[in-house]
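Q: What does the assembled structure look like for these inputs?
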Amino acid sequence: MKELIEVLAKSLVDNPDQVFVQEKIVDDEIIIELNVAESDMGKVIGKQGRIAKALRTVLKAAANKEKKRVLLEIV
Amino acid sequence: MIKVEQVGKTIEEALEAVLNQYNVTKDDVTVTVVDEGKKGFLGFGSKEAKIIVEIKEDSDLKQEKALNFVKEVTKHMGIEADINLKAEAENIFINIDSPDIGIIIGRRGETLDAMQYLTGLAVNKNSSSWTRVILDASGYRQRREEALKDLAQKKAERVKHTSRRVSLEPMNPQERRIIHTTLQDDPWVTTFSEGEEPYRRVVIALKK
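A:
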């Protein structure tokens, strides 16, 4: 899950070396925290959150395959 | 085409910096020297060299990017996939075949659409021209189009029989377009969309 978001985020931003992803497990849910350079925030959120939504959709599909619940937080 | 302005101690140094940054070779670029720069003496009177580098818009590069992106993403989703790319004019078509095809497509193509959107963004990053990327999964888009055309015809028949308008389920813009186009030449019914995204839906009604 963590690597998936890393791959996705790194191919969207201008500063791939500043992409940091952390994975936390709370109860039965995986929480993924995505960190990017300030100037790249728009590249992972998009107009009206369109990119963030697409990221969550792909992540959710991967989690479903493993019968897990996952939450993406962009911080 | 990407245009970059770069300064450096020498022309060679400036060029080297651009080539490294964009991960391209000398063959991929055209260099225009704006200022040759001066060496100076003991740091006095020296001037930096300035060049403009145009990096060729390499459609091969984009195709490679697209293919790699989809491969990497499916791999990290834990999905085994057979990925094929076809380039036509300004478009890139990628078909994915996999035993987990249902996961790749998602509910009403939701996951496939998200992946298509992200692939497009990744491929066109830092590019001034936009290449459309279309993802398909085992011919899903084709099948969906046939099903939507079918649905449009059936619902239109019902409108003609009952004289009452029919509102379809919410669809994305591409899917709504298929409905509109299917019925645009029908002499008896008219179509329009109502509601807000993502719940926007097509309504079929009798022509007045």
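The helical segments of chain B are 11-22, 59-76, 101-105, 110-124, 140-162, 173-183.
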